[in-house]
Amino acid sequence: MVIFKNAATMLIKLLLLSTVVATTYLLLFFYSYDYEKYNYSYYPALLNKISLIENTPSPKIIFVGGSNIVYGLDSDLISRKTGLPVINMGLTAALGLKFMLDQVKPYLKRNDLVVIVPEYHHFVGNFLCGNNELLLASEILGDYSMALTHPAPEIIYYLLEQNKRIQGYIFTIAIKCLPKAIEKSLLVITDNPSSPLTQYNSHGDIILHDNEKKQKHIDSYPIDGKINNASIKYLADFSSDNKTKNITTLFMFPALQKKYYMIHKDIIQKIACAIKNAGITIISSPEDFLYDDGDMYDTIYHLDEKGKKIRTDMVLVKLNNFTHNSIPARP
């Protein structure tokens, strides 16, 4: 009887501890996040992209990745050349590879073609699970479970690092800031470029307006840490599971600044080798998608309109080589 009493006491303590940790996890996020600094157009668009993949008939082509595909694909051209509906599910690398794959999995159907194009950073360190951005996506979707169940200790670390001044009134800040952020960033997917809310077209590609100037400085992020075998395995398991359902999964390397590639060539080649050894179907090489500074928009992964056209042509070539269908590139 004493044993059961002790076990029950321990269970209650564990539940209380878990509640405290989970609450702290969320409150630190609300307090630390700079709502004015970040571009919230990513997250409301997530709801629209889920609606796209859910309601688009199969067979279809789904591109999965971070912002490298948001700022680097002409999905309308790919759709016209292949004769298939194309959905660009890309948002931001910060959500993590696990989230990206988990989000599309329930909506994949027989004969669909999934093209995975993650950033290189997803294969090093703990970035499989992303960072604190995952929590904001959870808020938009109204489902915190997907963030809290992701084993991502770096989220806590990031939040603690951001909280240089942990003060009171965390609830007040959360209540005031979050609705304001969501209200300001509420978007719709549209093909009407005159709309001030336009950010994405009907395929999920971001729209760069003519009056948007390229950044003079291209943001760069070092590839730190060892290769994360968990990322490789998660991708391989995703591909294997799709195969049993007659869903084709292909892997492409992301668009990347050529200068950055030369600096990090060794680790990038190791990542490519690890993916190949996992039995994942790769239809490109890292060198296929390298670009000069003149083709970049604002980061090492983002292309401007010219770069996007060049990359889309190469994507069509790679798809054509794999499928052996007539998918011509732009003349």
Keywords:
Rossmann fold, 331 residues, two-stranded parallel ribbon, 6% strand, four-stranded parallel sheet, alpha/beta, 13 helices
What does this molecule look like?
- The chain has a single domain, classed as SGNH hydrolase (Rossmann fold).
- The longest helix is centred in the first third of the chain and has 31 residues, at 2-32.
- The protein is an alpha/beta fold and 331 residues long.
- Helix 1 crosses helix 8 and helix 1 crosses helix 9.
- Residues 30-40, 157-178, 180-198 and 326-331 have low confidence and may be disordered.
- 48% of the residues lie in helices and 6% in strands.
Q: Fill in the CATH topology.
A: Rossmann fold
Biggest pleated sheet: 4 strands, parallel
Give the averaged pLDDT, no decimals: 77
Pattern of helices and strands: HHEHHEHEHHHHHEEHHEH
Topology, number of strands: 6
What's the N-to-C terminus distance? 81 Å
Low-confidence stretches: 30-40, 157-178, 180-198, 326-331
Count of all domains: 1
| Residues in β-strands, percent | 5-15%
Helix content: 40-55%
Provide the gyration radius in Å: 21 Å
Which helices and strands occur, and which strands form pairs?
Blueprint: H1 2-32, H2 42-55, E1 61-65, H3 67-70, H4 75-82, E2 86-88, H5 97-104, E3 113-117, H6 133-141, H7 145-148, H8 153-162, H9 170-185, H10 229-244, E4 248-251, E5 256-257, H11 258-263, H12 265-277, E6 290-291, H13 305-323
Parallel strand pairs: 1-2, 1-3, 3-4, 5-6
Helix pairs in contact: 1-8, 1-9, 2-6
